Amino acid sequence: MIEANEIATNYIATWNTTEAAERAKLFARHWVEEASYIDPLMAASNAAELSGMIGAVQERFPGFRFSLKGKPDGHNDWVRFSWGLGPEGAEPIIEGSDVIHHDNGRMTKVIGFLDKVPAAA
Quick check: 78 and 57 in contact, CB under 8 A? Predict the structure, then answer.
C-alpha cells in the first residue's frame, strides 16, 4: 500500500527538480500522463503542461525550494498535506495545502490551495 508521505514526498521532489529532463523522469515514474492540476492561480491538464508550469514557478522564484509542513495524511486514493516555499534554510514566504488523488501511487489529480501569499508575490 502506498503511504501518504511517499506521495507527498514524490510531489515535492517534482516541484523542486529544476532540470526539465529530470522532471520528465519523475512525471513518468510518479504521475499519469493526463494528470490535472488546479489552484487559484494556475491550471494544467496533462504532465507536459504541469512541468511547464513548474518551470515557470522556478523562474519566478529562483533558489526557492518547496518543503513539507507537518505530516501528510490520506485515505483511500486521496492524500492531503501542507507545504512551504521559500529560500532554502529560511522560513517559507508562501504556504499552501494540496489534495492529491492517486491510482496505486501515481498522481492523477491535484487541487491546490494557497494559505499564505505575500502581497508582492
Answer: no
- Structural domain that includes position 104: 4-116
Residue 121 lies in a domain: no
Q: Give the type of residue at 113.
A: F
**Tally of structural domains, the chain:** 1
Residue 33 has φ and ψ, to the nearest 5°, of -60, -40
Q: What is the pLDDT of residues 36-83, one digit of tens each?
A: 999 999 999 999 999 999 999 999 999 999 999 999 999 999 999 999
CATH number of the domain within which 87 lies: 3.10.450.50
Whether the full predicted model's pTM is greater than 0.90, yes or no, is yes
**What's the number of CA atoms in the CB half-sphere (13 Å) around residue 114?**
13
